[in-house]
Amino acid sequence: MATPGIEQLFEFQRLPKDGFLLLLFLLYAPVGLCLLLLRLFIGVHVFLVSCALPDSLVRRFIVRGMWSVLGVFVKQNDPRLRDRNVKVYICNHVTQFDHNIINLLTSCNTPMLEGSPGFVCWARGFMEFGLLSSRSEMAESLKRYCSMEGSLPLLLYPEEETTNGRMGLLKFSSWPFSVSDSVQPVALFVKRPFIPANIEESSWILELLWTLFIPFTVYQVRWLPTVSRQDGNSSQEFGNEVQELLAMELGVVSTQITRADKAEHLKRKRHIAPRTINSNQSLGARPRSISLGFMAGNSMVEDVRISGMVQQVKEVLPHVPLSVIKRDLVQTNCVDTTITNLLEGAEEVNSNSSGVLSGAAIQTSSLNAVGDTASAPALKPNAKSFGKYPGDRHMSLQDRKEALYEYARRRYIEKHGLNRQTDNTQ
Questions:
Q1: Residues 6+ apart with CB under 8 A from 155
Q2: Which DSSP string do the residues of 161-197 spell out, in sequence order?
Q3: In this predicted model, what pLDDT tens digit does every residue of 266-281 receive, in sequence order?
Q4: Name one GO cellular component term (predicted).
Q5: What does the CA dihedral 231, 232, 233, 234 come to, rounded to 10 degrees?
Q6: What three-state secondary structure class fits 253?
Q7: N or C: which terminus of the chain has fewer CB atoms within 10 Å of its end residue's CB?
Q8: How far apart are CA 226 and CA 182, in angstroms?
Q9: Which secondary-structure segment (H or E) carries 346?
């Protein structure tokens, strides 16, 4: 399966794009408004019942039945697969109510990673740990919690951000896997008609209203076998192993896109549209819906193509930020050329770029300084002067290409452990 671009991992449009589905949605809208008002009244009772009853199997059965009246249906593959001795559940993150769904099946706690503690945090079903300055402090606090006798299991999201759950997983953070040496992966599937299960940058209140508006939402939970850390594996290696298992179960791709990459992508999307509109107004252009729609479609196709090329470069140079890779790809429109620029220092290769890719040169120098220096081949520096003869210039380019291919080959061998297999064969 091809690696998806960052644009394919998230949903940004609420209403269906298909004309027939949009027509059905508009016809359903009056019924949905009636359901919304009725379910709001029932939802208050569901909240009061869940607060009044103690945590038990009876409470989960009653609340689960009341949630089905709200249009939320929860399924699980086999309850006997759930390990009652494990202290940490690892789940993919699709909606802002995933922890509430898992709580309908088993008792567990989900720590509040962001936001101020208080009534809203408690009402949403999160566990308060106070304001912690870093994820390492959070991991230490959760480790102490797991060591307490009688403590409930923890439900953690290593992605730390939601995705659409259909294309790929964000790169797992390492801190959840430092809490315990044994975790149980939980695969979560979400389906609903007409609209996506979650829209980026939408508040949890708005998502709750849409959930009550839509006729139904189906959550399917699959319990996977417990995974234990192997001797000598770091927390990140342990997380990568669990990420691959979850990706296979979900039928998606395990990507190298991080939470920070998503935040940067959303920030860029917020600023591109206002700048485009302002530039059109400054030129005195009259807005036309057909032209803008055509331009938006072309830009979307271009973004998807560039995002695919960005992922190819990211696999070879995982430490270089996506923004630096995309900035160079927009200029070069070639994966090999961009990798060469990032490895050799883009400012020396393109003297006409006026320092646009200086960040790439800095990232490249830091990449060569960390860890991979011993394994990467020595790249020849750029020529200080332009060759007089075509043969000289061709040889210089050929040397850089050979160094680039050797570097990529060694990274691929080390990543997949092929060097061990080669040694055994010999």
A1: 89, 91, 99, 102, 108, 109, 110, 186
A2: S---SSSEEPPPPSGGGGS-SEEEEEEEEEE-SSS-S
A3: 888 877 655 555 555 5
A4: endoplasmic reticulum membrane
A5: 130
A6: strand
A7: C
A8: 7
A9: helix 346-349
